[in-house]
Amino acid sequence: MKPAIAPSLKNVLAKIGRPSDTPFVPDEFQKQALAEIKQNDCLVIAPTGSGKTWIAREAILSIMNKGGRAWYASPLKALSNSKWVEFGLHFDPENVGIITGDTRENTEAPIIVGTTEILRNQLYDAMHQGLDLNCDLVILDEAHFLGDADRGVVWEEIMIYLPVRVNLLLLSATIGNGDDIAAWLASIRNKTCTVVREEKRPVPLYPMFLHPSGCLHPFLDGKKAGSAVCEFLKRDRHRQSRRPPDYAGIIRVLERFNLLPAIFFLKSRAECDAALTCRAGLPPLKDNDAFADDLYDLLERFPSLGRHRQLKTLRSAGLAAHHGGQLPAWKLLVEEMMNRGHLRVIFATTTIAAGVNFPARTIVLFNSDQFNGHDFAALSATEFRQMTGRAGRRGQDKIGFMLAVQGRFMDLGHIKEMLSAVPEDIKSQLKNDFAMVLNLMLSQTPADVKKIFEKSLAAWQQNNIDYHGKSAADMLWKDFSLHLKFLHQEGFVNAAGKLTDDGRWAARLRLDYPLLVAECLRENAFPVDNERLLAAMVAVFAYDRDDEIHLATAELPHKLMAALRKMLVAVRPMSRKLQAAGFQSPKLYPSAGVAMYYWASGRSWDDVIKTTGIAEGDMATLVLRTGDNLRQIASLKDTHPETAACAMRAREAILREPVLFL
């Protein structure tokens, strides 16, 4: 691959450089949004990096100056952690607290940062206790998650339950039907919700195409595909070579024309890790004192990463992989090194685009599809914007680039369409589950719940946009009634439609499968004197992958296997009843419990990973989810004091480095 450029790119590449430093002056959309949120609700739709966080900070400051409190909610623990640090530096640490499933610090501070699930749970508690939420402003970051198939229900619940006096600030880069969302909010909250839009990217994006020869071409010629792209549109992409891309050659092309740093979006974790071998075809990084000093500081902060298998590649070649199979601490180190300008390339999976915090000068696309949790589907306009939003660093780049590379999984025609496509409309994802039904029954009558469904986004969209089909509110109510009937049959709800004693404590189990965990408590299947066994048993319910962990050893402790067998026997009747009634009952993987038992028993991290074969990131996720589940069980100290105390000890046993590092 020989680095070259089409003549028409010379003037474009001449724009590369750092913009001159100028005093910060807020844009008109920022000033408008700030004025609106002081009076009413506001939805801000603006590109990544355009300054939505500035609006949030100024709105928080306005509330603090009046002696009020603010809640900043994000969809990811990693984003919550980074905002906690950022706001701590801006507002002073004593003014900022954090609440996530595994971290609780300074919870009485005037500014709380946390995950949306925690905020929703606080609203459940406030409704149950008949109290007002101790907050004067709520900010929902990444508000397009309202349309997420799995978690959108949490966003919608917050918007429905939030007291009207609390102003709501929604931030997103990718909502197609913002006016509809605002109109729905205005209809249920009886106050104006203003939509503030900004279309202009803070750093312009220029799309390019890489010819296999190594020559860079414009992707577009006006609004049409460029000539080099047209040539490949005529070819059958499925007959492309199955060999992996020449990553080293591509990096040399980008380096030759000053287009680094870059993010290479790849299809899988394995591809990201395998791509690191391209360092053999690259010259090593030049000695750099700032690089060495910053890496030293980060390794002092995360000492367990000193033996990380990919550290040598990062140090010698400035390359790193970043995906869900890695430790949170490693991903944070990679992000910090990228943000400080020390890395050439990060190889990342496309699914991580929404959560990354490391913009680059160039993003490189090898695929036009993405894994959606079930199979591979063509990139949506929203997903494409999330990825291209990482191209161009505000304050560091005058221009950002997208580079498309032809291959078996690259449909250049689809990429051309996405360059001008608008984000998809958000549709309601409100649905019932047993945790939601139990918590609503703590504070609402069935008639109240029916009114909640009539206020849902699903009902509004049907009444105002789509008049066809069965009533959305009636369908939600019918499904709720089926859940309620099952809870009555199992003794969680009485004949009068009120929660029984069991129902009241089960409502505090805000888990994926509260009835199965509740059944273990009813049947005394959980130990009260062995935190290692309890951590193992709870991990089986917390494990959220759909594949078995293949253990490298067949010799398992008898006590552990007996405990797991007892638990599975205890939940089997409930699982069968759930399935017979048409509800989902998960497939349980005891191997997840074995992995957690090893970790809770004090084995080293490396030993657990080697013995179980589980990816580090997946094990870290399992530990954090298990810790969150144990926290819910620990909240039952008034009804199950011994099990609750054991759950607290189990949390302490598993929440340690390298998983918990803050």
Characterise the protein shown here.
The structure is a single chain. The protein is α/β, with parallel strands linked by helices and 662 residues long. The protein has 4 domains: 28-197, P-loop containing nucleotide triphosphate hydrolases (Rossmann fold, 3-Layer(aba) Sandwich), CATH 3.40.50.300; 203-420, P-loop containing nucleotide triphosphate hydrolases (Rossmann fold), CATH 3.40.50.300; 430-507, Orthogonal Bundle (Arc Repressor Mutant, subunit A), CATH 1.10.10; 509-662, Sec63 N-terminal domain-like fold, CATH 1.10.3380. It is 45% helix and 12% strand. It contains 27 helices and 20 strands. It has an 8-stranded mixed beta sheet, sandwiched between helices. Strands 5-4-6-3-7-8-2-9 form an 8-stranded mixed beta sheet, with helices on both faces. Strands 12-13 form a two-stranded antiparallel sheet. It is globular and about 80 Å long. The mean pLDDT is 93.
Structural descriptors:
662 residues, alpha/beta, Rossmann fold, Arc Repressor Mutant, subunit A, eight-stranded mixed sheet
The pLDDT mean sits at 93
Counting DSSP E segments of at least 2 residues, the number of strands comes to 20
CATH class of the largest domain: Alpha Beta
Strand order of the largest sheet: 1-11-10-20-17-14-16-15
Q: Architecture of the largest domain, according to CATH?
A: 3-Layer(aba) Sandwich
| CATH homologous superfamily annotation of the largest domain | P-loop containing nucleotide triphosphate hydrolases
- As a percent range, the share of strand residues is 5-15%
Number of helices: 27
Which parts are unreliable, with pLDDT below 50 for 5 consecutive residues or more? Answer: none
**Largest sheet, strands/sense/barrel:** 8 strands, mixed
Radius of gyration: 26 Å
